[in-house]
Amino acid sequence: MSMTNAYEPGRAELSAEENALIARRERLLGPAYRLFYERPVHIVRGDGVWLYDADGQRYLDVYNNVPSVGHCHPRVVDALCRQARILNTHTRYLHENVLNYAEKLLATFPEELVHVMFTCTGSEANDLAYRIARRRTGGTGFIVTELAYHGGTHVIAELSPSLGEHVQLGDHVRTVPAPDAYRNPGRDIGSLFANNVRRAIDDLRVHGIKPAALLVDTIFSSDGVFGDPAGLLAEAVEVIRAAGGVFIADEVQPGFGRTGAHMWGFQRHGVVPDMVSMGKPMGDGHPMAGLVVRPELVSEFGKSRYFNTFGGNPVSSAVGLAVLEVIENEGLMANARAVGGHLGDGMQRLAAKHSAIGDVRGSGLFIGVELVRDRATKQPATAETAQVVNALREKRVLISSAGPHANILKIRPPLPFSKDNADFFLSIMDEVLGALDIQQHTV
Amino acid sequence: MSMTNAYEPGRAELSAEENALIARRERLLGPAYRLFYERPVHIVRGDGVWLYDADGQRYLDVYNNVPSVGHCHPRVVDALCRQARILNTHTRYLHENVLNYAEKLLATFPEELVHVMFTCTGSEANDLAYRIARRRTGGTGFIVTELAYHGGTHVIAELSPSLGEHVQLGDHVRTVPAPDAYRNPGRDIGSLFANNVRRAIDDLRVHGIKPAALLVDTIFSSDGVFGDPAGLLAEAVEVIRAAGGVFIADEVQPGFGRTGAHMWGFQRHGVVPDMVSMGKPMGDGHPMAGLVVRPELVSEFGKSRYFNTFGGNPVSSAVGLAVLEVIENEGLMANARAVGGHLGDGMQRLAAKHSAIGDVRGSGLFIGVELVRDRATKQPATAETAQVVNALREKRVLISSAGPHANILKIRPPLPFSKDNADFFLSIMDEVLGALDIQQHTV
After folding, report:
1. How many structural domains is chain B composed of?
2. Minimal CA–CA distance to A8: which of A155, A24, A418, A26?
3. pTM: predicted TM-score of the whole model, two decimal places
4. What was the ipTM of the complex prediction?
5. Which of A305, A313, A319 to mutate to test the interface with B (most CBs of B within 10 A)?
6. Does A307 touch chain B (CB under 8 A)?
7. Same domain assignment for residues B26 and B90
8. What's the Cα-to-Cα distance from A181 to each of A18, A88, A216, B165, rounded to whole Å?
9. Does residue B9 belong to any structural domain of this protein?
10. How many residue pairs bridge chain A and chain B with CB atoms within 8 Å of each other?
11. Do B81 and A80 touch (CB under 8 A)?
């Protein structure tokens, strides 16, 4: 995700209390931590799609995908507390929870994907996929998109160009442009993407590196939210397999019904991955993640043991099961589709009014709105996007931005987001974009 | 940890229900998961130092260090549930919990160690230490002990020889023998260890590899529990620093008061590490971990951002704070010292009776008991150790084993372990060792 909207000292007037909290953070947590917004938000309570600050002010959450079924969902919290009072141990004793959860989770996958291994974070899930891909293929080459983010472990940071100049990509890593239909009008996006993967494979081979995997976020979140046309991944998946590599779908962001039409982002493209990593929304905030695999992928890897102390424990499993039940019982996938469609339509209407909107895209409740200075040249409106994100924050609406120029609004609310919430958000967007138009015209 | 006691099909008669659970595990979780014991335990409830199986039978937990302040400690569960109902979000908004927790945690460290970064697992904490050590030193060489376990991410598995033949150590990794006073009687253990580190550094250099770090578990848990003599790490720490590397103390197992005399294992050796990783006991089962660092270590690294979605969230911070308060309020460190001493004395008395006990060692409630076939030759009693661990399980006492020959009983109960618990455990140990003696004499 872009950090253009990160807090920097001196850019905004803060209260004494806010300054004190920030000073404590720097003293205690050190220099690697970042805060959102010019004027950071001090959140003390969450409920559904709402967050509340220390002054009791309410913020509409249009950004956080971790509390995917809503902040502090009572059914999820009840499952957490019930199990935490009874038992929390590990997977080297027998326990039903991990099995009941694994069964329900795997039932949402195509039949080829039969095993799940549990970790605590998406980074760990991708790291495990990395280990398995190398073991399975004997290769070491990885292909990712130009602005991918897949996690923070050493080898996964090396596969995460969005971390920027201070983190070096590995020598064994090649990047390809994300499949951007907006900036490649009239092109066959799937072929374009597959051709770039082909070129990356060729370049790995020229350097004597055997390809291990193509790893992509199936909605290309940090690249700028690209999901269209449906099916675009199919050719690239064939290409990596023909080269002896495997296809890893990173569902940490699109997964768990967010894209509306499907439980998993890869389903939109009619492909069946070799491995699927998942994380953030899996426990509605509880630290849990996992990797779903085809059995042949782990037949060799399984000879070494894999143990994750907290992964798949009875509490995490109870929480994960409750999240799946809430998605089902509250029809959150259908809601993501309906409200996402409504929100997308509303954004298109705003586009007719505000020339800064160059493109509206996405699927379900994962929408990217690309801001440009000129619709003909598509010049990225980087500064204006930061202005919009910060202006929305001042109006107590939380979103962020993505993409190489940080000019793509990343709209990704908790799934119980209602049409009313969408309309409220659209009305505030209208105001904020209006102020931007005026500024653009007067400058 | 040794997996000699892992379940293997056909070694023990199991109930239809147990077999069904095991079949489901294999089908759903795949081949990389392992179960403890010839006859796996099906645990359904935990309370303090006790675990209960599906038939309502009670097991004394003499092994699990994750539920360090006791299984399902009500104060910890209350803190978890209270905060989970209010807010669970991330560190890019301001929140007091992470600061209050960081402050209390850092207060237990020497003044040189001033920042803490939060992760979800010990593997992630060590992986972060790896990244920081490389960035800080410009080196890539790592030195670990011969049977170390530091975690499961790709780069940390490469530093974990205890994972066995199926996981390759990195080319940039050198191993040194753990500081084993039992098998090196009369030697200066600290110098011996430091000399081995010196040799490892020399060998790295011969191969053109600049040393980055010496990484050790400060009680050498999976190597077989070595803590004596106090101070033994001091010379090795000087050696790695003189070579331009840093010293990373892995406190995932010894940390949080377990060794009785100190909150952290490294304090026993009078050294101040450059980084300290921690995990398992930190949240009494809740998935949380962290890395404490000297500020100069992250001055460069901090230019890149580090973000861990769940790490340091308000719920984890509330849980971590409650664990620290329980350790303090219930005097658990003093209890570890007193009961650990009592248990060690009892083991020494058993040693006078049972020749299989070659050595009793450790600190606080982390005790290693090495079983040998012959006290003169110190031949490891590998099979007998597995027999003891499985016999204890049949008598509903849970422990495990460690060391290169899996002949060291690993005794590591939750910290509220009482003298009565210790006496009960000792009486069962007496029986089990007695049966072993008889078998040894009749075979």
Report:
1. 2
2. A26
3. 0.97
4. 0.97
5. A305
6. yes
7. no
8. 42, 47, 17, 47
9. no
10. 324
11. yes
